[in-house]
Write a structure and sequence with these properties.
single chain; alpha/beta; Methane Monooxygenase Hydroxylase, Chain G, domain 1; Heat Shock Protein 90; 4 domains; five-stranded mixed sheet; five-stranded parallel sheet; 14 helices; 12 strands; elongated
Length: 499
Amino acid sequence: MKTGVGSLLTGRLLKRDWFLVFVASLPARGADVAASSQPLADRTTLYLSALAVVLAALGIYRWVLLRQRRERKERAEEILQLVKSLQQEVTERKEAQRALQASQEFVMRQERLAAVGQLAAGLAHEFNNILTITQGHASLLMDNPNLDEDSIKSLAIINDSVERTAWLVKQMLAFSRKQVMRQQLLEVKETLADTGKMLGQMLGRQVTLRFEVAADLPPILADPDMFQQIIVNLVVNARDAMSSGGQLTIRAGQAAFTAADVSSQAERRAGPFIRLSVSDTGSGMDNAVVQHLFEPFFTTKEVGKGMGLGLATVHGMVTQHQGWIEVKSEVGKGTTFDIYFPIAARPARKVEAEPAASASSAGKETVLIVEDEEMLREMLREILTANGYQVLEAGNGEEAVRLWEENPDRVELLLTDNVLPDGITGLALAAKLREAAPDLPVILSSGCSAEALLADRDAPAGCSFLAKPYRPAQLVQAVRQALDAGKATPPLAASAPSS
């Protein structure tokens, strides 16, 4: 008989058949014994022997059953463990695939936003030039004492329109992360308290506003105006999502992430952060809408009720502050925006107060204007000459260098746009000219971030910044202040001429 585990069932059947045959034959054997002349003791021994055989057979049979049951249980446990291992492996693979897909989608979304942001920055630059020209000439006309009332009214409308357009351009620059920033240590709790005073009027009576702000929050390094604009834009977005009223909750607290937490969110970073949350009980959004939420001009609102720049602006401002946004939304239940700002790890650079305006902004000094937009350059010349200044003008960096070399001792101030057509930026031009004249005052004019430009390694120390668009009075005042402070401007050590 085979004794392997695979043949136990066969052995059991054979043993069982033999047992039945043996038991069936017992009566006949008993009769034979009874009829024989053997004594009773022998017959008792015979029956006891038969009973022992029966009991032994039953024991073997039970042992075989128990062993088979145990082996079946062990085999089932092995199969169950194998199934669990396969399930775990499949789950891990699916999670890895989802993480990879989310990472790829994030990269594609960031590339798309970066491309649109670059386009927005370019458009903002051109718009700022046009707005500066329009606002400048309108202001010059308004200074004419012979204007009638209707002309003054028309010019005021032009100036108001320029201001509105300038606000739109500012939103575009915020999205492209090139807006002018003035960072300082910011107390979140105090700022939320100040901002909350005006939010009630924006929300109306149908929306209930709640604040849940943790005590003893550490400060962040932020631009106060931009931080407030982030809150206002999110609150307006939440209000519009609660057309029938609801509850808006603004929370602020600390959050800390480890390396293990980072993998669940593509933008998340390890370290301590301040979390600003804005939650509403509005209509909510599905995932398809969330994926396009921060793209400029994307909106789900009716025509005429939104331009699609509010959340794009928020994204740009938050990114410019080295933060990120996480969105949780469910259709019919509401939306929560969680914004994370790095906790200030260093003292903020002290924002120096702007010098007081001079009693008179006029002067006789010579100013070198470098601007590629011809109409803007002509307007700058007209404004400065009207205030007594001498003007040299160039349309690009190469021409500016030539004028500088032709008039080595005449130029007393450089007023330049940063974006020039020949590849020489205004920063690089300023650094080059200050190699020969370390004390040369410089005014850099741009619509981009002053901190981003002036932190450039080519930026001369003490370079002034004039944000576009600006009015003629602002231009003349900036020129006067730069000239008055020019002698105190330190030389550019990194660009000192070699001996």
